[in-house]
Every structure is written in structure tokens, then in C-alpha cells.
């Protein structure tokens, strides 16, 4: 048991069965260190987004094993996995999935209210801190649909951070952003890894984004390129 390892995947193999049987991931094994900023890259169809969903424990239909923070997730029930995810993993997607009529603050608070481990006042305080960290304190009470695309994505990051997750997973988190906002998001992730020791795992098509992260894992036809 290595306490410096945030995530460990061993002999990960996955098939799709529709419209015909197709092996999308082929015997993949690697570890991710705590506080590491990792980019998953590869051409469309290489299996990288599929792998992220397995790593996030949202997809459980695979062979092999997945361990996060020394907890074996393979074999756990959907309810156990959902509770684990909410407490330990923050998600940032290409599309921010904010509730448009809700304020930035309310959007950020939602996962913590769901977790139910803190009072509403504490959660609101934490949410405002996160929005401040991301330069959005002035936008806290503005409804999400009144924000720019870059601001919405930063609100989504603030939401991903609200339960202080040990791992943040991003699926093309800068896919809809211009270069200026892409750099802002990249710098935020770098800061979280450096200063808070949070582990960042992102799928990206952006070569510059990947090149500046700590490590790149490249997939090709469902296999790791060494």
C-alpha cells in the first residue's frame, strides 16, 4: 500500500457490445501520484474518454481493477460508488452543466448540500471562497445563464472543488474555451495540484495544455503508448 498513490488501475480491459463486440481498452495499467497533473491524450476513438469514465467509477462494466486512495472500487455497488465519488472526486466537463436559472453561488453549493456533512452556512462560506479563488466573487449572485462561457466554466470548477475532492477529473475541460480562458483554467489546475496537493486527470485534445501538465498518457487504439 503506497500512500503517495492517488489512483491505481491494473489490467483494465473494456469491451463495447453494440452494434458488435469491440475491445475499446486493452490491458491498461498505471498509477497516478497524489498532487500529479496528468493529461490523457489520443486521437478521437482512441478510448481516452471511455477510460476517464472507468477511472471515475461511473462506468463499472470492465475487467481489471480500480483503486482510489487505497480503496478498491471494483466490485462496489452503484450506491457505494456514488457516495465515494461525491466525497472524493470533482468533475469538470466540456459543457459546464450548470443549472441556468440558479445563481453561481447556488450551483457551486449543490454537491455539498447533497453530501450533507456541513451546515448551509458553512457550505455558502466555502462556495464564496471557491468563487473568490477563481476570480468570480462579484458574479456570485448572478444567474449562470448571464455569465460568459469562460466564467461558466470557472463556476463549474468551483463546484467541482466544493467537497474538497482529492481528485479532479476533466473531460475536455477547455474544449469550448478560447486560448485566454484555456490558460486561466490550466493555471487554476496547476495551482490546485501545487498548493492543495489535489490530483488532476484531464482528457484533452489541446497539445499545449497537455505538454505543460506533469505527465502525458497517450492512448492509441485502446492501448497505452509507452
Overview of the structural elements:
It is a single chain. The model has no long low-confidence stretch (mean pLDDT 87). It contains seven helices and ten strands. It is of the alpha/beta class. A hairpin with a 2-residue loop joins strand 9 and strand 10 (223-225). Helix 3 crosses helix 4 and helix 3 packs parallel to helix 5 (149-161). A six-stranded mixed sheet has the order 6-7-8-3-9-10, sandwiched between helices. Strands 2-1-4-5 form a four-stranded antiparallel sheet, covered by helices on one side. The chain has a single domain (35-62, 72-225), classed as 3-Layer(aba) Sandwich (Rossmann fold), CATH 3.40.50. The protein has helices at residues 48-55, 78-88, 104-115, 120-133, 149-161, 179-196, 207-212, and strands at residues 5-16, 22-33, 37-41, 63-68, 71-72, 89-93, 167-171, 199-203, 215-220, 223-225.
Amino acid at each position: 500500500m503506497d500512500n503517495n498513490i492517488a489512483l491505481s488501475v491494473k489490467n483494465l480491459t473494456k469491451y463495447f457490445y453494440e452494434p458488435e463486440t469491440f475491445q475499446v481498452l486493452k490491458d491498461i495499467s498505471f498509477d497516478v501520484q497524489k498532487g500529479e497533473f496528468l493529461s490523457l491524450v489520443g486521437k478521437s476513438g482512441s478510448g481516452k474518454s471511455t477510460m476517464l469514465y472507468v477511472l471515475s467509477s461511473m462506468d463499472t462494466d470492465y475487467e481489471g481493477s480500480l483503486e482510489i486512495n487505497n480503496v478498491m472500487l471494483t466490485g462496489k455497488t452503484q450506491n457505494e460508488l456514488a457516495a465515494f465519488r461525491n466525497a472524493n472526486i470533482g468533475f469538470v466537463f466540456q459543457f459546464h452543466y450548470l443549472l441556468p436559472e440558479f445563481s453561481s453561488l447556488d450551483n457551486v453549493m449543490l454537491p455539498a448540500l447533497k453530501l450533507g456533512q456541513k451546515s448551509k452556512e458553512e457550505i455558502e462560506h466555502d462556495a464564496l471562497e471557491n468563487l473568490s479563488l477563481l476570480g468570480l466573487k462579484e458574479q456570485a449572485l448572478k444567474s449562470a445563464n448571464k455569465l460568459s462561457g469562460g466564467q461558466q466554466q470557472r463556476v463549474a470548477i468551483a463546484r467541482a472543488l466544493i467537497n474538497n475532492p482529492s481528485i479532479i477529473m476533466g473531460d475536455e475541460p477547455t474544449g469550448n474555451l478560447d486560448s485566454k480562458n484555456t490558460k486561466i483554467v490550466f493555471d487554476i489546475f496547476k495551482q490546485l495540484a501545487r498548493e492543495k496537493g489535489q490530483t488532476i486527470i484531464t482528457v484533452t485534445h489541446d497539445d499545449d495544455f497537455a505538454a505543460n501538465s506533469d505527465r502525458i498518457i497517450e492512448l492509441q487504439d485502446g492501448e497505452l503508448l509507452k
